[in-house]
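Design job #97: recover the sequence.
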């Protein structure tokens, strides 16, 4: 007979066995979930894209990315969404990311050609629009890029031919009707365009592009009373579209419904989209309400914009400063805007002269001087400038990390580290977004910098950019500043993840949030660097073999001076140049150990990959070969010169590259 104690412990044992079994089942099921969920999410995204619901598709792609962060197929679909929205710089960035993440080569090539066709940079194959399924294309994709491609090439007759062909085959199709509106808008008939866009919305309420076109066209025509319900309808049918919410806030502001506008714009506070217009819109709203300090705070955080929006930002900031009785600062902003208008006019005149007579040296020299002047940090007294002036009056030795950042870094990297400081618009390459972008110079296996990594970058500066060395700071100040940068990084990771959870109505678990923040902001193990002895001819010769076998010459060129027919973009979609190993200073320094780390760890956020398959000896030999290419003296380029070198290189002969503005956003209309 069992004892009472034995009887009472039996259920407890069974519970333990059941618990262990359940845990094992969950662990066994995890790989299936990790594999299945991204595929299912991408399938749902495809369905939404076919229905014209681009923002909804992007939501599904975010879910896919969380389960399969390194999926090239997810990135490729993101590129297709940006192409449909007309956001071609972001399309380039997503396409490059998908290539780095090893997406299907055939689909990569196909997406590249579709994007180039849309911009008019590639001829339009007839089979693409006559038989898209036979070419392995989604019909709506093929029809749209072909119509837009012909319109971009000023061949409207051929675009009309495509539309007639498909209108006969699909007379009630919403997307074909929308493209008819695009055609009429291109031809200057806004009445017919608006009617077509409205018909497209009536036929498919989820068609986001048609909603955008209706609302923006009404706003363009100053029909604000009609634009308002159009934006409300747009936002209700496309609830995840930041474009709808920002447009609604803008129209409410123009209609002087300021409290409503503020409430609507505030709903975008947790937007994870770095291109979102909501900060500039909030600044404009607060200015209208008379809250000049709040206005300046938002305007200082607004992302860099094109020239028209940049002047709107300058004008709003100048007005806010004037309201704060900072008339001198306001006058500087107004004078700067006037000077920029005059400079643009003169630059346009000089470009016309050089187009007729390219050999006019005086005109070319003046053009370079004007461009260099525009590239220098502007005298803009936004909130950041006021804070810097206030901080500068104090003893530097007593400053906290946040105050050191405001004094030394905020003007370029922005008040909150978003890379959108007042000087950012005048620099090439753009300052790093410390909250979301990868840090280029790292020594760890997970791409997150250590405090020591950041201290070195701050002290040395970033050769080839506008970031100067801060070698006048003490070791303690370097440590405080590095810690502040990591604090901004952690806040950025947290804000993005919480925004994603809120957008999907998910419960926010602080422990879960903290784990995600730690995963993306705590440095991994420091990668060991092999012992690197002195170079000798045989090591350099072996290093050249490694250089060629590893594919280094595809970007850096046969002689290490950079190739001229490859277009490279960073993760933000901005143009970057392969390092000229002979004439350019190395960003991380010329010490052999530093070169070795760039080879092993790559440069996160840039096209430069990590190379960890090399043996220690191969890595040492490659370091010696790269060092042997270096020549003196090193060249120093201005922002203008770097921009020209990045954007005026010869284009590839196989697939022409389209030139896009680094600040481009979605097409204004349609």
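Job complete. Output follows.
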């Amino acid at each position: 007979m069992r004892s009472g104690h034995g009887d009472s412990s039996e259920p407890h044992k069974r519970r333990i066995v059941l618990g262990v079994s359940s845990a094992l089942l969950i662990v066994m099921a995890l790989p299936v979930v990790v594999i299945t969920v991204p595929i299912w999410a991408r399938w749902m995204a495809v369905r939404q894209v076919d229905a014209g619901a681009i923002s909804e598709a992007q939501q599904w792609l975010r879910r896919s990315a969380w389960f399969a962060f390194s999926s090239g197929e997810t990135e490729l679909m993101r590129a297709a969404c940006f192409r449909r929205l007309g956001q071609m710089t972001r399309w380039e960035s997503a396409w490059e990311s998908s290539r780095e993440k090893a997406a299907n080569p055939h689909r990569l090539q196909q997406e590249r050609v579709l994007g180039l066709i849309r911009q008019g940079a590639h001829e339009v194959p007839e089979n693409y629009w006559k038989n898209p399924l036979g070419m392995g294309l989604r019909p709506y994709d093929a029809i749209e890029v072909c119509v837009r491609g012909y319109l971009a090439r000023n061949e409207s007759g051929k675009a009309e031919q495509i539309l007639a062909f498909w209108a006969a085959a699909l007379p009630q199709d919403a997307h074909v009707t929308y493209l008819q509106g695009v055609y009429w808008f291109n031809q200057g008939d806004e009445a017919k365009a608006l009617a077509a866009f409205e018909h497209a919305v009536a036929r498919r309420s989820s068609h986001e592009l048609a909603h955008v076109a209706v609302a923006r066209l009404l706003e363009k025509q100053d029909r604000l009373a009609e634009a308002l319900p159009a934006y409300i309808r747009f936002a209700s049918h496309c609830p995840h579209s930041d474009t709808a919410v920002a447009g609604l806030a803008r129209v409410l502001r123009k209609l002087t419904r300021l409290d409503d506008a503020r409430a609507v714009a505030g709903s975008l506070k947790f937007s994870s989209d770095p291109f979102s217009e909501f900060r500039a819109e909030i600044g404009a709203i607060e200015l209208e309400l008379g809250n000049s300090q709040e206005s300046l705070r938002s305007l200082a955080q607004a992302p860099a914009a094109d020239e028209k929006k940049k002047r709107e930002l300058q004008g709003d900031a100048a007005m806010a400063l004037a309201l704060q009785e900072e008339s001198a600062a306001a006058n500087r902003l107004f004078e700067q805007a006037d000077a920029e208008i005059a400079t643009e006019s003169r630059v346009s005149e000089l470009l016309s002269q050089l187009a007729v007579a390219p050999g006019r040296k005086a005109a070319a020299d003046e053009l370079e001087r004007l461009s260099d002047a525009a590239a220098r940090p502007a005298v803009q007294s936004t909130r950041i400038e006021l804070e810097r002036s206030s901080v500068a009056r104090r003893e530097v030795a007593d400053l906290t990390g946040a105050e050191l950042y405001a004094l030394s870094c905020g003007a370029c990297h922005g008040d909150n580290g978003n890379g959108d400081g007042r000087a950012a618009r005048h620099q090439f390459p753009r300052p790093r977004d410390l909250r979301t972008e990868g840090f280029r110079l790292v020594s760890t296996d997970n791409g997150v910098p250590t405090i020591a990594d950041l201290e070195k970058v701050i002290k040395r500066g970033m050769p080839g950019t506008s970031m100067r060395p801060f070698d006048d700071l003490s070791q303690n100040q370097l440590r405080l500043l590095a810690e502040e940068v990591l604090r901004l990084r952690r806040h950025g990771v947290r804000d993005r993840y919480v925004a994603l959870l809120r957008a999907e109505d998910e419960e926010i678990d602080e422990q879960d949030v903290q784990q995600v923040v730690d995963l993306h902001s705590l440095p991994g193990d420091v990668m060991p660097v092999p012992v690197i002895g002195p170079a000798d001819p045989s090591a350099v010769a072996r290093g050249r073999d490694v250089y060629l076998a590893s594919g280094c010459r595809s970007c850096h060129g046969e002689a290490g001076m950079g190739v001229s027919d490859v277009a490279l973009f960073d993760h933000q979609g901005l143009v970057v140049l392969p390092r000229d190993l002979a004439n350019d200073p190395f960003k991380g320094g010329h010490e052999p150990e530093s070169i070795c780390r760039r080879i092993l760890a790559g440069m996160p956020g840039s096209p430069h990959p990590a190379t960890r398959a090399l043996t220690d000896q191969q890595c040492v030999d490659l370091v010696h070969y790269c060092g042997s290419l270096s020549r003196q003296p090193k060249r120093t380029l201005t922002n203008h010169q770097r921009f020209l070198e990045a954007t005026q290189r010869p284009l590839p002969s196989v697939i022409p590259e389209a030139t896009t503005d680094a600040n481009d956003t979605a097409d204004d209309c349609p």
